[in-house]
Design a protein that fits this description.
There is one protein chain. This protein is mainly beta. Helix content is 8%, strand content 52%. It has a 22-stranded antiparallel β-sheet that branches. Strand 16 and strand 17 form a beta hairpin. The N and C termini lie far apart (67 Å). The C terminus is likely disordered.
């Protein structure tokens, strides 16, 4: 068997099978196949050489095809295998992994020291994380200390898609593994709606039960592309936005704290193009709704706070507003339109309702085993035509 001497153990005790050991001329040679005992899945082949006279030795570790999948484990039969099955520290970090890992490692030892290194990678690995599903991770990690699970700095992985609410594709992540089972995120970068989305640097300590914090930075997204992605047919807008989206996940779920998008100068336009079903509105209310059909703004700020599984408060503030050239006008509205107007809108709605039009419902069990299991998305918040009862609250 192969077991970890450290406590708590970093990996599960594995079964050594088909072992062959030879002792000749004071030298030991051994070959063995190492399997995960419950799933019966092959993990690696070990080839070992040791000189009893000098206390020096060498081991080659070969992972031909370590397959992760979601099959049911039946003792005594080949079944599903997950990272948390091999290493308990992955519990609550990733789940529902599917893909194949390959690579080679070497361990050299003498009486005083032990050194190890290796390279392991995948062409395609899918999994669920606390922030959402991740697909198509590819790349290779170069280990400078394989036993200590330490990599060289700045290891690059490509990510075909990730979905923390809005799907992002074709990303590149720069990470490294540090001593003490710490994952350091140096950067993450995705093209996003005419701009780009960046994952800010941070450390994830796998052995510590603590909140997982991420900060997403948004640069130069196009307002029209954002609304198109949201499939909000009753709104149109122009403008370019930058901002940040701090996310925190723990055993109680996920939340946004202090999220903010801010428009770049000189601003842009926003239009509500849906039909209005209210009939008995005051003259000023009618003017406000007519103004919403075409507004020019110099600045817009969108703030977001709240629990991802509950209500997220979205605050939209327009300043420097004037009627756009396409707004309905007469003598009275032209005079009123000269008065500076400021709109402040607060929206209280379930976050997964807000994003349901942006991405498909996650697959069943996508968040199994992760802190804060989220409910599936609800139906879209706002219909193409306004109803007799607003779909949120505003002021």
């Amino acid at each position: 068997a192969a077991a970890d001497r450290l406590q708590p153990a970093r990996f599960k005790t594995l079964a050594g099978e088909d072992a062959v050991l030879t002792l000749k001329d004071n030298r030991v040679t051994a070959e063995a196949l190492v399997r995960e005992p419950d799933s019966r899945r092959d993990v690696m082949r070990v080839s070992l050489r040791h000189d009893l006279a000098t206390a020096r030795g060498h081991a080659d570790l070969t992972v031909d095809a370590l397959v992760f999948d979601k099959g049911k484990i039946v003792p005594g039969k080949v079944g599903g295998l997950q990272p948390k099955t091999l290493a308990p520290q992955f519990q609550g970090v990733i789940a529902d992994a599917e893909g194949t890992v390959r690579g080679k490692g070497v361990v050299d030892w003498r009486a005083e020291t032990v050194t190890s290194s290796g390279a392991f990678g995948t062409d395609k690995l899918d999994f669920s994380a606390a922030f959402g599903p991740v697909h198509g991770v590819s790349g290779t990690l170069e280990f400078t200390d394989l036993i200590g699970m330490v990599t060289a700095p700045h290891q690059t992985l490509r990510v075909a898609s990730a979905n923390p609410g809005i799907e992002v594709t074709d990303g590149v992540v720069d990470i490294e593994l540090l001593a003490g089972q710490v994952v350091r995120i140096n950067s993450g970068l995705w093209p996003f709606l005419g701009g780009r989305l960046k994952l800010a640097p941070g450390d994830l300590r796998l052995t510590v039960n603590e909140p997982r914090r991420f900060r997403i930075e948004i640069e130069g997204i196009d307002a029209s592309k954002f609304l198109e992605r949201m499939e909000l047919a009753n709104l149109s807008a122009t403008g370019t936005f930058d901002g940040r989206l701090p996310l925190e996940f723990d055993a109680n779920g996920g939340r946004i704290t202090g999220g903010q998008l801010i428009s770049r100068p000189p601003g842009g336009t926003v239009s509500y193009v849906g039909a209005l079903s209210y009939k008995d509105l005051s003259a000023m209310a009618n003017f406000a709704f007519d103004a919403l059909k075409s507004l020019d703004y110099s600045s817009m700020t969108i703030g977001m706070d709240g629990n991802l599984a509950g209500d997220v408060v979205t605050r939209v503030e327009f300043t420097g507003i004037k009627q756009g050239r396409d707004a309905k006008q007469n003598f009275v509205t032209r005079q009123i339109g000269k008065i500076p107007v400021k709109f402040n809108v607060n929206i209280h709605a379930p976050f997964y309702s807000l994003i349901s039009s942006m991405n498909p419902q996650p697959p069943p069990g996508a968040f199994n085993g992760l802190p804060g299991t989220f409910p599936p998305p609800a139906s879209a918040v706002q219909p193409p035509v306004s109803t007799t009862k607003p779909q949120g609250t505003s002021n």
